[in-house]
Recover the amino acids of this structure.
């Protein structure tokens, strides 16, 4: 099955389609779509655009396609315009227990790692004070 079908399946799932409907649209069986979903970690996480320095889902798919084609991480890095060390780290992080690189699972894991579980301390604790001002000037956060 070409990776473009899998890519389209996950695009449809992220847009809110149920698994069976997404599978039908890309032309695979519901069980095939279910297996893709399970292999990806059984979750669909919103994928908001971020800085270009982060790998995208398409970058991860290109890495997987390159590995399957037998290309080296150096060549893959040049193809996607990222540093070689970024690609090597991604391959190491994105491997599942069986040793195979799984781009959808790796992308979901990266999105989970990016989430911040802590609350923002500055917003909740009032104005900032500088010790040398002895309370004469205070700055507040806007936002």
């Amino acid at each position: 099955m070409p990776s473009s079908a899998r890519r389209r399946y996950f695009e449809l799932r992220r847009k809110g389609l149920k698994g069976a409907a997404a599978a039908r649209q890309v032309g695979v069986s519901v069980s095939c779509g279910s297996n893709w979903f399970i292999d990806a970690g059984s979750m669909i996480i919103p994928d908001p655009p971020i800085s270009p320095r982060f790998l995208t889902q398409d970058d991860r798919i290109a890495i997987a396609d390159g590995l399957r084609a037998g290309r080296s991480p150096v060549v893959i890095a040049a193809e996607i315009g990222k540093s070689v060390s970024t690609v090597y780290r991604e391959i190491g992080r994105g491997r599942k227990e069986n040793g195979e690189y799984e781009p959808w699972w790796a992308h979901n894991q990266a999105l989970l790692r990016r989430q911040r579980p802590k609350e923002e301390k500055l917003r909740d604790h009032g104005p900032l004070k500088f010790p040398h001002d002895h309370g004469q000037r205070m700055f507040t956060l806007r936002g």
Notes: The mean pLDDT is 79. The chain has two domains: 1-43, 45-115.
